[in-house]
Amino acid sequence: MVSWGILTAAMALCSRYWEFLLVRVLLGAAEAGFFPGIIFYFTFWFKKRERALKIAFFYIFAAVAGVFGGILAHFILLMDHWNLSGWQWLFVIEGLASALVGVSVWFLMPDYPHSVSWLTPDEKMMVMNRLKDDHAAGTSASSDANASSVNVAVKAISWREVRDTMLDKRVLTMSGLFFVMLNCAYIQSFFMPAVVKEMLDDPVWANLLTAPIYSVAIVASLSNSVIADRTGKYHWCVAGACTIGMISYLALAYALTGSSFIFKYAATIGAASASYATIPPYLAWFTLNLRTSTASAVGTAMIVSIGNVGGFVGPQIMSFSEKWYGTLGYGLGVAGVLEFLAVIGVLLLAWWQGDLGGRKSKGYEQIVDHEPEMEEPSWKAYGTA
Description:
Blueprint: H1 2-10, H2 17-31, H3 34-45, H4 51-76, H5 86-108, H6 121-134, H7 141-149, H8 159-167, H9 169-200, H10 203-208, H11 210-231, H12 234-255, H13 261-287, H14 293-307, H15 310-325, H16 329-353
């Protein structure tokens, strides 16, 4: 976060195009590890069937921060002091604020439960024991942290394990599915106000009516995450959300230039809700199978990195739709097809892992209410059969 903030502030000094590109590339590299790092950090503190809701809160508050950030940016852009324009002040203020928060995190944010000062020894032991019981099927990120708590050496990084994780079929498959899902999420995020505007042809009402859409989407995200955590049926929660997204996008694409406003608005709410309800349980499902700290770190970074390519592809789909056909409807139709592919992919993956009564792939770690005693750790990212 410190390098992220400093580079953001440095954007205010850019006066040439190549300077802007250089700093922007460095900024992207600096912020790339933040989101996967947070997901990885959650595995140190929360049990498997608690993570979807925690990820949902993080995901939602990131969106809420964007709303308040937009309001703050509006007032900062009005500043014009000390030979700096408003856009320069925007980079300086938000960049330095991020750097200061990054410095405070170093001192205030503990790595593991055993290292905090605000827990008693009994409370620390309780947290570590519940994590140990939750990861009894093998070594995991949390159990690595737990090992450190009881004066056992934390497992060192194994480059062989890094390679195995990056080449693991499940990691690659789930990364590809996440790319498909994030295409739809970015389409929803960047173009939903434009979609509402196309329905109303009134920019003022279009902006106002986006608020209820995201309000319902937040409720949907939290609700689906709670269901996923309590039932352990992450695949059904993800597939269900993607199915709602598929129906909503296809209905919106078909009815965008016709039908009643209420029908189109309902489809818009469904599409946004599906996008918000998909990501948290999907990432929680992904972390369930990562049995070591190395696998968790590498795997989480991979899925987020590959998925975020959708941040480029998704908006391009909508831009081409508007440019070539004069409407966003075709792009929304593509989003519906992508949601359909995500549903098929999630169900096939669940069947492959044994969740649907099909084959159980080698090394798959099934969630059960009563897990066996801890086995000896394996160097493999997903254990051995």
